[in-house]
């Protein structure tokens, strides 16, 4: 079940992030995540199974004069990776973003460890930067362009 994030989820989400350190995140990113949850998680979602959070991810707006949304902080419990949780969560966010007619591009900033996941979903690599997030965690910036939104074709896109 995918639902909207609430502040009551914070403790469980931080524990989820820590389960993915050092495999997918650096220890130095924990404070960044806490700040994100505190200040930037307006469009953040969690995936629950049997009352436990097994995944999370969000998106942020306001980039490129309001025309770009950015996928943010994707995390899946290690025991559930490779089972479609991340894909379902990403498609859920794309669907939400696609409802906003002002957005024509989605960007994801990820690492060399998972960029192929986004590539399979249609994102294209734009640039890389070595050790961007932390030593050994390179930036892989990718994007996807959405169809132009008009009221006439909006229902066909969704």
The count of β-strands is 7
Strand order, main sheet: write it out.
1-2-3-4-5-7-6
The general outline is globular
Q: What count of helical segments does DSSP give?
A: 5
Under the CATH scheme, the architecture is 3-Layer(aba) Sandwich
User: Regarding CATH, which class?
Assistant: Alpha Beta
What's the SSE pattern? Answer: EHHEEEHEHEEH
Question: Given the helix and strand composition, which structural class is it?
Answer: alpha+beta
CATH topology, what is it called? Aminopeptidase
CATH superfamily: Gcn5-related N-acetyltransferase (GNAT)
- Low-confidence parts: 150-158
Radius of gyration: 15 Å
**End-to-end separation:** 20 Å
Q: Report the average pLDDT across residues.
A: 91
What percent of the residues sit in helical stretches (DSSP H or I)? 25-40%
Name some characteristics of this structure.
35% strand; Aminopeptidase; GNAT family N-acetyltransferase; 158 residues; disordered C terminus; 28% helix; acyltransferase activity; Acyl_CoA_acyltransferase; acyltransferase; single chain
Question: Would you write up a description of this structure?
Answer:
This protein has 158 residues and is an alpha+beta fold. The chain has helices at 10-19, 30-39, 85-98, 115-120, 154-157, and strands at 2-4, 44-49, 52-63, 68-76, 105-110, 124-134, 137-145. The protein has one domain (2-157): Gcn5-related N-acetyltransferase (GNAT) (Aminopeptidase, 3-Layer(aba) Sandwich), CATH 3.40.630. The chain has 5 helices and 7 strands. A 7-stranded mixed sheet has the order 1-2-3-4-5-7-6, sandwiched between helices. Strand 4 (68-76), helix 3 and strand 5 (105-110) form a beta-alpha-beta unit. The longest helix has 14 residues, at 85-98. It is globular. The two termini are 20 Å apart. The model is unreliable at 150-158 (pLDDT under 50).
């Amino acid at each position: 079940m995918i639902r909207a994030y609430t502040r009551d989820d914070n403790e469980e989400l931080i524990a989820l992030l820590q389960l993915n350190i050092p495999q997918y995140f650096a220890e130095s990113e924990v404070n960044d995540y806490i700040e994100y949850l505190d200040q930037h998680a307006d469009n953040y979602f969690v995936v629950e199974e049997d009352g436990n959070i097994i995944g999370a991810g969000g998106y942020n707006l306001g980039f490129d004069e309001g025309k770009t949304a950015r996928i943010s902080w994707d995390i899946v419990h290690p025991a559930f990776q490779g089972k479609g949780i991340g894909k379902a969560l990403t498609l859920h966010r794309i669907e939400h973003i696609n409802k906003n007619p002002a957005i024509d591009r989605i960007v994801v900033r990820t690492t060399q460890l998972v960029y192929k996941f986004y590539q399979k979903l249609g994102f294209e690599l734009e640039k890389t930067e070595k050790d961007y997030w932390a030593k050994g965690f390179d930036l892989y910036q990718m994007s996807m362009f959405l169809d132009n939104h008009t009221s006439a074709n909006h229902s066909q896109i969704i």
